[in-house]
Amino acid sequence: MRSEQEMYNLIIRTAQNDARIRAVILNGSRANPHAPTDIFQDFDVVYIVRDLADFRRTPDWIAGFGELMIMQMPNEMGSPPSPDDATIVYLMQFSDGHRIDLTLHPLARLSELPRDSLSRLLLDKDSCIAPYPPPTESDYLPQLPTAQAFADCCNEFWWVCPYVAKGLWREEITYAKYMLDVIVREQLMQMLTWHIGAQTGFAENPGKLGKYFRRYLAPELWVMLERTYADADYGHTWDALFATCDLFRKIAPPLAERFGCAYPHADAQRVYAHLVHVRALPKTASQMY
User: Fold this and answer.
1) Is there a contact between 262 and 147 (Cβ–Cβ < 8 Å)?
2) Does 188 lie in the same domain as 61?
3) Range(s) of the domain holding residue 246
4) Is residue 241 part of a domain?
5) pTM of the model as a whole
6) What are the C-alpha distances in Å from 47 to residues 26, 31, 113, 160, 234?
7) Can you give the pLDDT at residue 85?
8) How many Cβ atoms from other residues are within 10 Å of residue 15's Cβ?
9) Which of 6, 25, 96, 102 is the most buried (most CB within 10 A)?
């Protein structure tokens, strides 16, 4: 595996040796002084380039970055193809374990490039980019919810829970797991993000997809969150559904009070009772109630 410094040298040297590349910006965790470092960290890089269409005409130019295990170009997937002046993205996983997520952004549209708070300017041949302030996590901090956002989260959570119960009663495990582990969980994770925000003054980054939740959740809540995950066993998935509801019911009402939002207590009680009823409903039932 190449060293970190070798990778930085390669990224910058490639830009220095290519007249089409005018600037290099580093984004993401490697620009974040607070991010944990390990061998899986990506290099999130933006090249500011001239003649973007020429890069499309010569796709082999990326061979200089190393032996690829696999690559994805999300902007080029699907139909119709991207226009010649559209940003090009190369997601490159190399055989030595390193990964570079490389974006080519046209110099002519520099004003359209979002200024990510986790950014470092590594090279600027023409002094065309305004200096970046020291990197901070400000773009990645949880935000205080609006009353509408809070209400929508609660409504979606309790609305979809009966779908999980229906799938479990029918023994349609893939349907039930999708509803629980994707849609319902998304609302739980949002509520947990707001909970962490409230606990930390909205000044700490809980991490993408909750990867830092364990740092900020009380041990009791972390154990409850672990219980929301299950295998494909029907009984275990029922248990996970109720664990998910119990955790949501524990954190959401106090947050509603703290944020001055409304919590749908009556909806939650009715839906929870319905879940209990469906779990006990015989498979031979011809009526639900």
Assistant:
1) yes
2) no
3) 141-280
4) yes
5) 0.88
6) 9, 15, 11, 43, 49
7) 64
8) 21
9) 25
**CATH number assigned to the domain comprising residue 241:** 1.20.120.330
Give the per-residue SS3 of the chain. Answer: CCCHHHHHHHHHHHHHCCCCEEEEEEEHHHHCCCCCCCCCCCEEEEEEECCHHHHHHCHHHHHHHCCEEEEECHHHCCCCCCCCCCCEEEEEEECCCCEEEEEEEEHHHHHHCCCCCCEEEEEECCCCCCCCCCCCCHHHCCCCCCHHHHHHHHHHHHHHHHHHHHHHHCCCHHHHHHHHHHHHHHHHHHHHHHHHHHHHCCCCCCCHHHCCHHHHCCHHHHHHHHCCCCCCCHHHHHHHHHHHHHHHHHHHHHHHHHHCCCCCHHHHHHHHHHHHHHHHCCCCCCCCC
Q: What is the pLDDT of residues 191-237, one digit of tens each?
A: 999 999 999 999 999 999 999 999 999 999 999 999 999 999 999 99
In this prediction, residue 59 has a pLDDT band, given cuts at 50, 70 and 90, of: confident
pLDDT above 80: residue 31: yes
Instruction: Please report the pLDDT score of residue 276 as a whole number.
Output: 98
Handedness of CA 147, 148, 149, 150 (dihedral sign): positive
- In the chain, how many domains are there? 2
The domain boundary, picked from 84, 107, 139, lies at 139
Please say whether the beta carbons of 22 and 50 come within 8 A: yes
